[in-house]
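#structure-requests
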Amino acid sequence: MADARTLKITRHLKASRAKVWRCWSEGDLLKQWYCPKPWYVSVAKIDVRAGGASHIVMNGPAGEENQIYGQYLEVIEGHKQTFTDAYVGDWIPSTNAPFMTGYVVLEDAPDGGTLME
C-alpha cells in the first residue's frame, strides 16, 4: 500500500527482461550501474534467493564508503525481487537502523523491451 513515504519509479528499458534480470542478479553486472558516477561499487556480493544476503559497498570520489547490508525477502526468478536492510541474511535482524524495503518487478514490454517498476 503506497503512502507519503513510498517512492515509485517506472521505466521502459530497451533490453530484454532476461538481460535486465541479470543486471539485478549478478554482482559483476550490478557493479557497473548501481550508483551514479563518479561513485562506483567496489563490492557486490548478492545471494538472490528468499533469505539470501546482500552486501554492497559504494565508494565516492573523496574516499567516502557506504556499506549496505540487506536480505532478499522474495524472489520470483526473472520477474520480481523484494529486499530490505532490516535483515542481513538468513533472517538475522540488522543491528543498524533499518531504512527501507524495496522491490523490482520486471514485465515484458510489447516492443521486446522491459517495463521495470
